[in-house]
Hints:
The complex is a heterodimer of chains A (about 325) and B (about 350).
Chain A: H1 2-28, H2 45-54, H3 61-73, H4 87-121, H5 127-158, H6 176-214, H7 217-224, H8 229-240, H9 242-267, H10 272-282, H11 285-313, H12 315-323
Chain B: H1 4-22, H2 24-27, E1 48-50, E2 56-67, E3 75-84, E4 86-96, E5 100-108, H3 127-163, H4 165-180, H5 183-193, H6 200-214, H7 217-231, H8 234-241, H9 246-254, H10 259-282, H11 294-298, H12 304-309, H13 315-342
Antiparallel strand pairs in B: 1-2, 2-3, 4-5
Amino acid sequence: MKYLFRRTVHGILLLIGASILCFLFSDLAPGSFFDEMKLNPQISSSTIAALRAQYGLDRPLPVRYGSWVRSAFRGEFGYSFAYNTSVRSLLVLRVRNTLFLTSLATILAWLIAVPLGVWIASHPGKWVDRICMGATSLLISLSELVLVLGLIYFAVRTHALPVGGMASTGFDRLSVLAKVWDLTAHLIVPAAALTLASLPILVRHVRACLVEILGTPFIESARAHGVGRARLLFRHALPAAANPLISLFGLSVGGLLSGSLLVEVITGWPGLGPLLLESSMSRDLYVVVGIVMASTVFMICGNLLADVMLVAVDPRLRADLRAE
Amino acid sequence: MMARHKILAAVVLLVTLHLAILFAGFVAPADPVVQNRDFPFAPPTRLHFVDLRGHLHLRPFVYQWTPRPDAFNEYEESRDREYPLQFFVSGAAYRVAGLVPSRVHLFGVDAPAQIFLAGTDSYGRDQFSRILSGGQISVAAGILATLISLVLGTLIGGVAGFWGKWIDESAMRFAELFMVLPWLYVLFGVRAFLPLHLSSVQTFLLLIAVIGTIGWARPARLIRGIVLSAKNQNYVAASRGFGASNVYLLRRHVLPQTYGVLLTQAALLVPQYVLAEVTLSFFGLGLSEPTPSWGGLLATLQQYNVLVSYWWMFAPAVALAVVSLGYLSVANAFHERLQSSSS
């Protein structure tokens, strides 16, 4: 419990640091949302100055940061210039959609990667191993961008799947079953792209960990005792490899989020990605900060989850913590 | 253990690609920005070896595309004249590696025919030439940004590991902060705060600076780890006992131990940063028309009809994938070499 508390405090400190960093970056940058208005001769410079004052952009950085923190405590996270509403109301649905997509892809990727990695690790150097390693190198070098474009090409060419967005028009009028089907159909392309993109690194790590474990004496002795192959792999070897794999889970959250940004924008999935691109273009400062902070929260939560799982899985760590 | 010939193949592939990109003007048959408004979205020119009478030609030849009269953006080969492939032909003016003016191209065909190895884009510009000169932007951005990251990482990691104490503590906290931010989100965010309308040279430098600076944390942590273990070696202590200065110790004993990791990191970071540039340009936050870059070339695929109808617009993706594959194989080889030498 104490450990969890310490990790949480650490995460919160990181968040505060990240928010300060965000504001520092924003202060370094020349120009703001209202600069585009200067091009419009119908808007006088005093109007722009008044607008800037209204949104508090004319005040010094620490003051702006302070008011942002206050607004974050009120649950608003600043104000969007373009939408004239609080950042929170913009983000809530989008955060849900992004979380939905990324967690689905994570689960799928791990469900495929662990058995596949264990399987090819038990045949090192054989043809399955070579094919899988070749395929993973190819997938890594293709990157999310190309993968998702290729999948869209396939989906559009075969007319098998809808592309773009999260729901068809007239979604509200569908029955529950049809709604579920519609959502699934829209989900397949982005989820498949994201899963395929995060899969190769996981498979490679699972394989590397397992190959190392399979060479150790305790596996040799278990085999000598006549332990069956499946039991040997999944009951003896896999738990021994759990530690680095759980750490990998924490680290992979960041890559997954970045990948999901791309996939969301290209497939039009209404998550954080498209909003980030749009607000980057229009320099909607607080929306950008809000999205970067939201993604940082995901990442810290992923790391926290990994920490907790490590303690849950590894009795040695628990003993260490108790000894403290 | 990766077979020796595989590493060699990867290195040869990478060197060839980089040379082709460096000498893009010579290898490419056409000027990357010259438009052929008569040939929008022409498919890749086919190389023929057998003519209409069934004679075999050792020197391949091409037919000229002509627009099909009854269709839009569709072409057929006009078979009445063959244009044999020529080598070292004179064509559009360019500068060898950006310096020496020249007109000689590696290959080409006689006018009025043109050779489009990877088809043409919406303005009828030769995609193959655009991919090569786009590589000059994308790959150079990747390499330069990697240099920035590694220099920053070595400096901060080296200082933190060597001097330790509060410097180390604060540098590593700072690195943790950078590593906890998902890098693509940060890249977009930082780009959002920078001016949108810049000249292409400014944008290029800005992109490199942003991409390279954001990525300093991981190399810094790795370097710090090595420096930390190296400075506690007995021979370093002995050397210090003989009166060696800190700078001498760093230069002579500590930093040479980091070269292996630096090389591996470089081979890993270059494809990642090339991809970063491609991503930003793809979304219109990087270099814009008419300067070709791989992301900008791929951006046409955002148009639904282009994506569906013209498969050769995927060609820049192939170039990107081949470059990444080459770098990643080399990185793997370095990594295995390091592991086998340390254990």
